[in-house]
Design brief:
Number of strands: 22
Strand content: 15-25%
Structural class: alpha/beta
Number of helices: 15
Strand order of the largest sheet: 12-11-10-13-14-15-16
Largest sheet: 7 strands, parallel
Distance between the termini: 105 Å
Length: 594
């Protein structure tokens, strides 16, 4: 054998073959021994969600690695990301054994596991599922601190100076015969999460009166030298593993990925400015090829672009059969967003370190567990669902007759996912002024992209108020109708077919459904909305010098033609409309006398 400078022997093929034969025998022996008496696979429930934390262990995910070593470190984090989903939220009944391998199952590529760092016979080698000892070790330490009874646990054969193994606090695992098992005489819960930089393991239980573990004894084996690097950087070029490792894991230091849905010009510009060569752009489909302006993102030439075309087409097909309004529509839209998020999740490379995410995809990606171990920014296009529902509830109290203000509320699990994901996010990017104010210092306020002004037509004898929305309570329809019924002499043009049905507040008001062309002859644009996320027509009116009356919830920028009211209020609306119409009448009289 060739002797290396740090007294390590170069691995030989026959040694690897012997290792494989030995492990297969041990795996068969464990499988035979457990016929008919394997531990149960436990379920995820929420009974102990608020139980006290008995133990919490944290460990860093990302080590300082060279470009050669980074791919295996990224693979390890990906394996922890996948494994965490199998354990997070498990609740184990009293006196039942929790088995690491029984719960996780075999690590395969089909399940999402990749090549990661694994310590094997003195070498750090690439292995499918490599790196899971970081999870098993923290589970073992948390079990010790919680007083759980340790049924089975194995330490590493190699003890490295300064490591957890030197303190006898490590726990190695190898399918299926090197397992980690423990139990308690009380029900308990496991939580496993990946933050941007740490692996976090918690154990919860209603009582800490549990079995006490055996005292931990220190190993007598002396520490051995740390390997000079993993398979990609150890310098043993003559090793049979090295060429294959380099081929599969080209040197890298990570990249960013943009997970996008509907295009906003403000987000398009920001993403293009912050993309670097080698980044990945994931969009629903090729907007230019399929002639879909909504998906025509300005993807940089040096970026890799992939699409979720099938999921996007399926969503589009389902949308065509939806009603204009209602809970069914919202459920179908969310299901379509979830399918696109699921498609994107399969496209993410383990070496991706940072994400930029369209907000509507965020809670679904969080539930899929792909955000753990990564930093991410969010393109904020609407209120968080909890805040949006709070505002709708407030509007429903003001207008209990409404048929739409309470017709949809998101699932509690989805609300929780979005809340947790937003709390973990870095920058919250938006042009919406009210949203930026809501998030404070965490928000990155972008300028709205102002459209080219339109040519205004000659004023009519009777003023026209333009309502750039459907006649729905969340758009301020009830407040606008109350204002118009107070004696305002003006025509009203609205957009969209959706309405409040039997509670339509526009009954008895001189109004008609219009189109965007009517904006040119409008005396003012009125949108006293409870919720408005993308006020494009109001921006067009401002750019064209047309007065706009809007609530702060519309998120419009400061402008000389903008008249803001704090919240939907018929009295405040009436006063501003009357003031604007008075000025309009004065200009009309002046035009006749010239």
């Amino acid at each position: 054998m060739i002797q290396h400078e740090n007294e390590r022997e170069t691995p030989q093929r026959w040694q690897a073959f012997a290792f494989q034969v030995k492990t297969r025998l041990f795996q068969m022996r464990r499988a035979i021994a457990e016929l008919g008496k394997r531990p149960l696979v436990h379920q995820k429930t929420r009974t102990l969600l608020d139980a006290p934390i008995l133990a919490e262990k944290r460990t860093a995910l990302w080590l300082k690695a060279s470009a050669e070593e980074f791919p295996l470190t990224a693979g390890k984090v990906q394996n922890l990301r996948v494994a965490s989903r199998a354990f997070h939220g498990l609740e184990i009944p009293a006196d039942e054994v929790m088995s690491f391998w029984r719960q996780l199952g075999r690590t395969t590529r089909r399940k999402g596991f990749v090549s990661g760092r694994e310590l094997r016979e003195g070498c750090i080698v690439p292995a499918i599922g490599g790196g899971l000892c970081q999870l098993s070790g923290r589970l073992y330490q948390a079990a010790l601190d919680s007083g759980l009874e340790i049924i089975e646990r194995h330490g590493h054969s190699r003890v490295i100076a300064g490591s957890q193994a030197e303190q006898n606090l490590d726990a190695t695992v190898f399918w299926n015969y090197v397992d980690l098992r423990f139990r308690s005489n009380k029900p308990w819960r496991i939580e496993v999460e990946l933050t941007t930089s740490e692996l976090v393991v918690r154990i919860r239980a209603l009582s800490n009166e549990v079995h006490q573990s055996s005292p931990v004894t220190m190993r007598s084996a002396p520490p051995r030298a740390l390997p000079s690097g993993d398979c990609l950087s150890c310098g043993m070029l003559e090793c049979f593993r090295h060429p294959s490792a380099v081929k599969e894991h080209a040197p890298a230091m990570g990249h960013s990925a943009f997970l996008l849905d509907a295009r906003w010009p403000e987000f398009d510009r920001w993403c293009a400015e912050h993309s670097r060569p080698g980044d990945r752009w994931l969009t629903p489909m090729d907007g230019k090829k399929w002639k879909k302006p909504n998906y025509q993102w300005s993807t940089p030439a040096e970026a890799t672009v992939r699409h979720a075309t099938f999921a996007a087409m399926l969503r589009s097909w389902n949308q065509r059969r939806l009603p204009a309004q209602g809970a069914r529509k919202q459920h179908v839209l969310m299901r379509g967003e979830a399918e696109i998020a699921r498609a994107y999740a399969t496209m993410l490379d383990p070496k991706c370190r940072h994400l930029v995410i369209s907000q509507n995809l965020l809670p679904h990606l969080w539930q899929l567990g792909v955000l753990g171990g990564r930093s991410f920014d969010v393109l904020m296009e609407r209120w968080p669902m909890e805040e949006m529902q709070r505002r709708l509830d407030q509007a429903k109290v003001a207008h209990p007759q409404s048929t739409t203000l309470a017709d949809f509320r998101a699932d509690e699990e989805l609300l929780r996912a979005e809340r947790e994901a937003l709390a973990a996010a870095g920058r919250l990017i938006t042009p919406h002024v009210a949203l930026a104010k809501y998030f404070g210092a965490r928000a990155w306020l972008l300028p709205w992209e102002m459209p080219a002004p339109i040519a205004r037509t000659t004023a009519k004898e009777k003023p026209v108020l333009f309502f750039p929305a459907s006649r729905l309570g969340r758009k301020g329809a009830f407040e606008l109708a109350t204002s118009l019924k107070s004696g305002i002499n003006a025509e009203l043009r609205f957009l969209g077919a959706a309405d409040e049905g039997d509670a339509d507040p526009f009954v008895g008001i001189e109004c008609q459904r219009g189109n965007i062309a009517d904006l040119a002859s409008a005396s003012a644009v009125v949108i006293p909305a409870w919720i408005e996320h993308q006020p494009r027509l109001a921006l067009l009116a401002l750019a064209s010098g047309i007065p706009v009356i809007a609530t702060e919830a519309c998120g419009l920028p400061t402008h000389e033609s903008l008249h803001l009211i704090a919240e939907p209020d018929a009295n405040a609306l009436t006063a501003i409309i009357q003031s604007i119409l008075k000025s309009w009448q004065a200009r009309l009289i002046a035009s006749f006398t010239e």
